[in-house]
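hey so i finaly got around to running the thing on NAD-dependent epimerase/dehydratase domain-containing protein from Pseudomonas frederiksbergensis. pasting the sequence first so u can double check i didnt mess up the copy paste, my clipboard has been acting weird all day
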Amino acid sequence: MNSNKVLVLGATGGIGGEVARQLKDAGWEVCALTRHLEKGINQRAGITWLHGDALNRQDVIEAAKGCSVIVHAVNPPGYRRWPERVLPMLDNTIAAALVEGATIVLPGTVYNFGPDAYPVLRENSPQHPQTRKGAIRVEMEQRLRNATGNGAQVLIVRAGDFFGPQAGNSWFSQGLIKPGKPIKAVSYPGAQGVAHQWAYLPDVARTMVELLERRITLDAFESFHMAGHLDTDGTRMSRAIQRVVYQQTGMEPRVTAFPWWLLKVASPFVVTFREMLEMRYLWSTPVQMDNARLIEVLGREPHTPLDEAVEAALVGMGCIRRDGLETFS
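ok and heres what it spat out for the 3d tokens, dont ask me to read them lol
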């Protein structure tokens, strides 16, 4: 087994792609499994792309040969077919990790928690979810915990809503703004006065890389929460976008309410909209992550200033250019 060889599942997505990039830059030999080789090769250089499907156990086992780490960052797009796909994919990762004696890294979510855990979430907060996706996430973590009894090691890094240059499917890129378009308005899904937790993807990836560097000192099952960027009153993220766009273009976008009514009307016909509606409660419930355990282990949390992170995200999504001109006129 190569102690510096890693398999990333979901490397064409947001968090998987960013973790793969940072591991490569840190000197790891990075392999990635994908059904679309051309997309992967065009998207990330310096990575060994392997053709296969995370739903095929043998594909995952073959791809993981010689790997000391498997990053499980794969999800069905648009929340579609979670019950049929999410747990089988994880079981395949567990099977491969047990063969190799590998460490599994999982990006965690706040879906696991219910009202009895809010508003401040800690690693030992009770996990009593009230949604279907939350129940699946709890089952995922239980299966991972069980796997540690058979020789696997597990690291879970839990953070808020992702945003970044390549965020993929996220509230930031699919709700607040429109990628590839000049920003005339910010459509905010939450209510003013309600705290919401955000996480900048490169910071999340850096946290995972640094934890992996210390994995031999960690227990078989470890969970870490990131403080990320806390929007304390439901206006901080929108104002950051307004500031960045104004500094770059001289025009300040307005802030509007997200059209939840439209999702409700269209939800009978669009699966993704139905799944988004199920998670609406996270925009009306204050959420804050306690990162004390992470600070204990790393001494600090990787943290990019909010305006800098927002600027990088908007540049990466083709909404502005760093020279101060909008991408589109």
